[in-house]
Specification:
alpha/beta; 8-stranded mixed beta sheet; 8-stranded parallel β-barrel; binds phosphoenolpyruvate; binds magnesium ion
């Protein structure tokens, strides 16, 4: 019979798949002798079985749960629902931590019969009744869906009637009234009495946790973090300890290092006389961790010792939850702490230096995508000096964000869809706000500390966040916040500096990111192990320079058409397109030549001998022509044509399906003059730069080839011109001639094509489009449906489809190498910057990947991962 329930003493940290992260770590901590309240874990497999059984708990599982409950009673010497009552918590915990996304119920085992005993045992009626009202509310809300607000409203009403400001002013008698009121609210919402049978409380809570795996916010979180929907959650049932029994109690969260900067210093927050989620929910702004010594002076040293033990044991920074009950410390959770990219690098390098892990492990610990955070601009120092400070909060998650303020998550989502940059401003955030947080450029909260929900989630997403900015007064219902009498309304611009905690008025200017020593160290390690080289797609010398700064070893794609759109050139380009004969076309092309040549000179100078792949003109010509009558009129005047003639020419160029139309090498075949001009520009630029003593390595690339004869035709244009220019100038230009592989026929006849091509570059944007028959410009909408319905797990335009498109690539690479053993192979489609596609490119033996400049570091690390994981 399958085993679905494990006592903490039966598990270990390597059982995350089965026990979930929380369960596996509770087991591990139990086994290394840390003070963990005893309990047991129901497996993720049980969760999946629950879904297979139409969301019903089955008799064998119930039996297994109750037998573990009995063992727990024996261990604690208490009774669940009986004399000396045992109280338990029920918490979710999946393989990957999903902070706040799933459900928790605390204080199970309380009922009308156990309350008097608990009061007698604790001598603290106020505490017991407070715990009971929390339990009724949590059970009602989480398990039965009675709106939390209904309970809150009643609670606030009693407080108001009594004239209290703080919850702590409520007496035991007041809490008795609240308990009765909550029971009535429960009955009204659910249609039956609050369950007095603790076994019913337990089973229904377990079901609620299983069900919460599939709630909306958990699904969104998993989608955002690429976590499979199939993992399921574990359920941890643990005997309760209370941080809210008095002033010798407390609860808190700590990181063994600073999760924002990586500094090796205990970093945490703590509340005296508070329960479980109060810290994370950000309702009260907590105290520094050292202050736990106020309870008694061995607590902090003990805690530091436990933190050291855990970090040594796990060989990584830990995020630890703890509770102090009547002066005794308990550890409730440990997990690998989420951290910013900056901190991730620092911690990984320091752990290598300390001998905890090796370089390989350090590289593998950093998610390539996470580096993205380091590569984006920060506020300009000069602009900051002039900026108007509104207030200062806690620097919860670094980064610089400017945008317009919105107070509701939904409004932020809408604003982002309209192309605005929303800054989400809330009193505090809760898991319901997740989608708005994802869409926001930055997050500002008035309450909560560095370990509040907002801070933890923002750091996980690499999003700028200022938390606990108590100086501002947020009124979500009025959609405004005030500060010293000044009102900031929805739509106003502000700027957040998540690294310092400052909030500024308006938009503050930014500067390029500066990469620190840690970044260079880690990238150096990555390059040592990677086999794939990383190039960048770049159309301008500026892009090329950025790519070099980020460590690119060449340009994998220069899309020459982007140069055609610039000022002054576009009119010559248009003249060339509408020309009715070769002579006029050549005249217009002669005007474009010097521009194009100077573009290439600029790029070659920056690249200093690294290879530069320049693609001959690719897009359909009508993309360069105006569409509106008024613009056509203006162009007609400029070109000295009649409006009607020009309009006819534009109409003639119209295509029903331009992506499969007159583009790519087909243009060079119809208009060889264009390819001739571009060849001249490339070779002349190379000669000019070589004469300055700078080496160059151009690679002339023909797009959209499906047949060897197409490439042969273009070769017959390019090679003679190159040869002639070199002879005329007496300069040898080392250049290569090759093609993109982006048409399925090109891929399956790559052996033939390699007779002419010295290199292949996979254009996986078009190759995906044509292999699937999905228009790359129209597919986004319906691919989302595919993703939602589980037909696709990833968008094939984002990650290479290894089975279909990948098969064509593998076949083409093999055929290419068979024909020409030294053929150079790369990829320049968008996939070149996607870590899982990079892994695939590594597996089929490509020589390099090429991606946008800002993804170069991500690709370098992904290339190292591919080599290490081989
Ligand atoms: C491609 O098709 O993958 C490619 C790089 O070319 P473009 O995106 O310009 O069509
Ligand atoms: Mg293409």
């Amino acid at each position: 019979m399958a085993k679905f329930v494990y006592a903490f003493s039966e598990g270990n940290k390597d059982m995350k798949d089965l026990l979930g992260g929380k369960g596996a770590n509770l087991a591990e901590m139990t086994n290394i002798g840390l003070p963990v309240p005893p309990g047991f874990t129901i497996t993720t497999q049980a969760c999946n079985t629950y879904y297979d059984k139409d969301q019903q708990l089955w008799p064998e599982l119930k039996e297994e749960i109750f037998s573990h409950l009995k063992a727990l009673e024996e261990k604690t010497g208490k009774n669940y629902g009986g004399e000396n009552p045992l109280l338990v918590s029920v918490r979710s915990g999946s393989k990957f931590s999903m902070p706040g996304m799933m459900d928790t119920v605390l204080n199970l085992g309380m009922n009308d019969a156990t309350i008097p005993v608990l009061i007698k045992n604790s001598g603290n009626p106020r505490f017991v009744l407070d715990a009971y009202r929390r339990f009724i509310q949590m059970f009602g809300d989480v398990v039965k869906g009675v709106p939390k607000a209904n309970f809150d409203a009643f609670f606030d009403k009693i407080k108001e009637e009594k004239g209290y400001e703080f919850d702590t002013q409520l007496s035991a008698d007041d809490l008795e009234i609240i308990v009765q009121g909550f029971k009535a609210i429960y009955k009204e919402g659910v249609g039956s009495e609050f369950p007095q049978d603790p076994k019913v409380q337990l089973l229904e809570s377990v079901e609620a946790v299983f069900s919460s795996w599939d709630n909306n916010r958990a699904r969104i979180y998993r989608r955002e973090h690429n976590i499979s929907h199939k993992l399921g959650t574990g359920v941890n049932i643990q005997s309760m300890v209370f941080g809210n029994m008095g002033d010798d109690c407390g609860t808190g969260v700590a990181f063994t290092r600073d999760p924002a900067t990586g500094e090796a210093k205990l970093f945490g927050e703590f509340l005296i006389n508070a329960q479980g989620e109060d810290v994370v929910a950000g309702i009260r702004t907590p105290m520094q961790i050292e202050e736990m010594n106020r309870i008694n002076d061995h607590l902090y040293p003990d805690f530091v010792h436990i933190c050291d033990t855990l970090e040594h044991h796990y060989k990584d920074m830990q995020d630890i939850e703890f509770t102090i009950e009547n002066g005794t410390l308990y550890i409730l959770q440990t997990r690998t702490g989420k951290r910013t990219a900056h901190a991730a690098l620092k911690i990984a390098i320091e752990l290598v230096e300390a001998g905890f892990i090796d370089k390989k492990e350090a590289l593998l610990r950093i998610e390539p995508e996470q580096l993205d955070q380091l590569l984006h601009p920060t506020f300009d120092k000069k602009a900051l000096r002039e900026a108007v400070v509104i207030a200062k909060g806690l620097n919860a998650s670094p980064g610089a964000a400017s945008g317009q303020i919105f107070f509701e998550a939904n409004d932020a989502v809408k604003a982002a869809e309209e192309g605005l940059k929303p800054i989400l401003v809330r009193k505090e955030t809760s898991p319901e706000d997740l989608e708005g947080m994802i869409k926001a450029a930055g997050i500002l909260t008035a309450k909560g500390g560095r370990t509040s929900h907002a801070a933890v989630v923002a750091r996980g997403m690499g999003k700028c966040c200022v938390a606990g900015c108590e100086a501002i007064n947020v009124d979500e219902s009025k959609k405004q916040f005030t500060h010293k009498g000044k009102v900031y309304k929805e739509g106003d611009f502000i700027s957040l500096d998540g690294s310092t905690g400052y909030v500024y008025e308006g938009v503050v200017g930014t500067t390029e990111a500066t990469l620190d020593e840690d970044f260079e160290t880690l990238m150096g390690w990555a390059d040592e192990v990677a086999r794939l080289k990383v190039r960048s797609n770049a159309d301008t010398p500026q892009d090329a320079a950025q790519a070099i700064r980020f460590g690119a070893k060449g340009i994998g794609l220069t899309r020459t058409e982007h140069m055609f759109f610039q000022e002054h050139r576009i009119s010559a380009v248009r003249e060339m397109i509408v020309a009715q004969n070769v002579e006029n076309r050549v005249k217009a092309l002669d005007k474009i030549l010097p521009y194009q040549q100077s573009d290439f000179v600029g790029i070659f100078e920056v690249m200093k001998g690294f290879p530069v792949t320049i693609r001959l003109l690719d897009p359909p010509l009508h993309e360069f022509l105006p569409q509106k009558d008024s613009e056509i009129m203006a162009l007609a005047k400029e070109l000295d044509l009649s409006f009607e003639d020009l309009k006819d020419r534009i109409t003639a160029l119209h295509e029903i399906n331009p992506m499969l139309g007159h583009r790519g090498c087909r243009l060079a075949i119809s208009y060889p003059e264009i390819a001739a001009m571009q060849t001249r520009a490339i070779i002349l630029a190379a000669i000019e730069v070589i004469k300055k003593g700078i080496p160059v390595l151009p690679e002339i690339m023909v797009p959209l080839v499906g047949h060897k004869a197409e490439l042969d035709y273009v070769e017959a244009i390019v090679r003679p011109i190159a040869k002639k220019l070199m002879e005329e100038h007496g300069v040898e230009v080392p250049y290569a001639f090759g093609t993109m592989i982006e048409v399925p026929r090109g891929a399956i006849t790559a052996g033939d094509i390699a007779q002419t091509a010295e290199f292949f570059s996979f254009g996986t944007n078009d190759l995906t489009q044509m292999t699937y028959g999905f228009s790359r410009d129209d597919a986004a909408g319906f691919i989302n449906e595919y993703l939602d319905k589980g037909i696709f797990t990833v968008d094939p335009f984002v990650s290479i489809d290894p089975i279909g498109v990948g098969l064509l690539m593998d076949m083409a690479a093999k055929q290419g190498r068979e024909t020409r053993s030294d053929i150079h192979l790369g990829i320049c489609g968008e996939h070149g910057g996607d870590p899982s596609s990079i892994k695939f490119c590594h597996s089929i033996g490509l020589d390099y990947v090429s991606c946008s400049p800002y993804r170069v570091p991500i690709a370098r690390l992904a290339a190292a991962h591919a080599a290490l994981e081989e």
